[in-house]
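Notebook entry, cofactor series.
This is the third protein in the set we're modelling with a bound small molecule. For this one the ligand is magnesium ion. I'm keeping the input format identical across the series so the outputs can be compared line by line later. Sequence and SMILES below, as received.
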Amino acid sequence: MHDMSNELTTLPKATKKKKSSTVIEVDDIGFSYDHGKTETLKGISMTVPKNQVTALIGPSGCGKSTLLRCLNRMNDLIDTAKITRGAIRILGQDIHAADVDAIELRKQVGMVFQKYNPFPKSIYDNVAYGLRIQGVKKKSVLDEAVERSLKSAALWDEAKDRLKDSALGLSGGQQQRLCIARTIAVRPKVILMDEPCSALDPIATAKVEELMLELRRDFTIVIVTHSMQQASRISDNTAFFYLGELIEYGPTTQIFTNPSVKQTEDYISGRFG
Amino acid sequence: MLRFRLLYLQIPAVPADKPTNKPAPSFKGKRGLRLMGLNITTDGVVKGFFGGNAYLAILALLFICVFLLKSGLGFVPGYRVELSEARVSGIELTNRVRYELTGYKALLARVNQAFIAEKRHLFSDEESAIYLYEEFEALIDDEFEEDIEQYVDLDDGAEKEAASVKLRADIATACSTISEKQLLLSLARRLPDLKKISPEARQQALTLAQEYALNDAETPDAVAAISTRISQEMGTFNTAIQRIKSAGKPLSQLEATLTRQTEETDRILKLNRQTSGSILALEEGLKKAHKRDEPSETITAIEDRLKKSRGSFIEIDTEALIQPVYQAIQNHDLIVDTLVSELAAAFDTLPSEFENKQVTATINEARQLNGELAVIIAKQKENINAWRHDKDVNLSNALTAFFFGSEWQTGSPWQNVYGLMPLFTGSLLVASVSLLFAVPLAIGAALYVNQFAHKREAALIKPGIEFIQAIPSVVLGLFGVLVLAGLLKEWSHSPLLSWIPGFPITERLNVLLAALLLAFMAAPTIFTLAEDALNNVPKAFTEASLAMGATKLQTAIKVVLPASISGIIAAIMLGFGRVVGETMVVLMVAGNKAKIPEFSEGLGVVGQPVHTMTSIIAQEYGEVTEGSLHWQALFMVGLVLFTISLVINSTCQRVLNRKTR
Ligand SMILES: Nc1ncnc2c1ncn2[C@@H]1O[C@H](COP(=O)(O)OP(=O)(O)OP(=O)(O)O)[C@@H](O)[C@H]1O
Ligand SMILES: [Mg+2]
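Returned structure with ligand:
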């Protein structure tokens, strides 16, 4: 299902070993929240390989979420926001090209938010939402998609007897997994996650992390996290940001054991700021 | 499973707080002013002030409730007395006969209408020719009197021949100078719906007029001949109408007899009630005067008046008074049975199809009314035969008569009735129709402003809509009465808009007009509250939806709207409450006709005038005397309004609480 329309080979060294191809290519991107007066992202370049988990880390306010939201053009919703330079290509396609529709893009690039946010609808309706807005009406198709997605999100066993119940009756961890199920129901190519576990307790966090390792097989995942343990546990690559710049990017093992930049080491070892 | 050195675990310890040299905290509060054993502090005063105000508000509310209840509920026993008097005097019985008569009259009116339409259809030219001729005749009398005299005096011969030609020509010229518009205006009284005078009719009228002139101002026989021909041609129809008319006469007579009889009884009863009232008052006064040791002149004066009052009090034998009524009503069965069979026979003589569709439709309506009348009569026969003047009227009868009474009639010399239904349905109808306009408008605007509008646009729309609320309702009402009413009526006659239910409108002031203006008043309320509700939908929902590739419209309709539905329902309900409670506008534009609207017209019901609970109070409070039954009835209506508001508000609270559960 993930046949790549445009295979790129400019990959970080470590991932080359896994013979992975690039899904996202960020090319010297600059971004501003105020019509270009000040840049929040100052020329970021990086590539995200297929079927891997890529973690974005860095101190608060460094622009991780901003970059993530550039990838599915959620920043379009802010009137004053502007891409000041560079380009982002996903599956080889420039996402800011004139003929690209942000709506279509977001169907391919799903997003899971920091605070779990299922709709105040039933579990079933939440998962079916994405397909329904795409015009799918057939019950058998929806049923199949709901079951598949909930299974993928490791929620099926807990939810299968209460599909018609309100999603808000689930526990926090279950709700976040439901949000993941909702996102994968439309079979996106990429899943963006912005601190998906920060509102969860350790056990729920462990479950979601386990899930991400599973999902890696079918999706490409970009995750923002504040937890260094989490980044080290689940990600294949880690990018460290500081004040809107990409300081260091490489395989997670290398970043955490042998960072080449002093700032990265300081941050990782908690000697920061 | 540590595969590598975890640098991040080496977190330096946080240095402990250094001890400071601050003084130890004290827990003593400031002492307030001591006054009469009370400790008065600023906090206490402020708290007392706000608390006092809050309790004052509640106290005022309680006071209003108690007052409403006290004044309103006294109505029920009072109404019971009035209803039982209407029974004893026979008014109630007469009303039943009147009810039948009303049904008959409606039918008669319909048949008459059909007759006129048929005549117009068949003899449009002839009829207008006759009336037109009469116009010309007046003109000739005015202008050609001398010419006619001269002409008549002439001897027969060539000269007379020439004069006749000249007179004819002069008359033709004079008649042709009158414009069509002017003629239509003159004929409007007799042929109100005549739109155009045909050339044939005009020619015929002219010929008749010329004949009239040359005949020494004698009405030509041809005029009478036309009239005769018309009535002959309309013969069957005419006979049927005459038959229907005479069939109703006995019932009319019965009603007149009953009315005369009961009015007399009622007068006597009322007089006696007054007298007994004043006797009671005088007796009371006498007792007091004795107690207070008033001078003997005062006491004798009171005693005198008491004696007089006692003298004018008649011992009434209600049995005897009511006997003529029972006698008259004996014939009722026979009268109505004959009426039903006569009507049926008369309708049988009429053809089922007329050349003119309009006439056929009207006659069919009349036939239907005839069927309904038969049903009414069958029911009233039972009612009338079971009627007894001395049957007790109890409190629940009075309550039912108020809550389900279909008539509100005050200041009537016959009988005052206080039935809530016309007002209740009026209020409900106006409010519902206005919500029909206001809800889509307000919710749509709220959704737009909240979900789609640019910030600057929202900054324009929001205060704009909210400002509408600031328009004094009397100004809106004025605009409605003086401007919109006329416009609406005019537009309603446009053929382009004839598909709208209720169009064309015949009443200038009506439900639709009131609803439109009220929608204007309800919309800001609904808009503001709905916008708040939409605003309360967490941004996270919108983001989640958009991030899934939903459009803004899909997000608004499938996520935001459902998530805020309880708030929106509450907004609509409060809008409803606002409209139901609104007074000035409905008083000015709803038409103030206290009659249950004809729901049989379907959606066309919006073209009718109505009265509402609020406007009846505003309209009639000035003309009631304190403590009278009418006064109490208005308070009853107020009580109902109050209850409705209370229910709406508490339901809203519950709906909203359910959301924030
Ligand atoms: N909607 C916005 N409008 C204007 N400025 C914004 C907006 N969102 C973020 N910023 C600014 O952009 C900068 C980067 O923010 P961003 O949210 O990307 O940081 P982050 O790395 O995700 O931080 P955190 O770890 O706290 O989530 C911050 O200085 C922030 O104040
Ligand atoms: Mg962030």
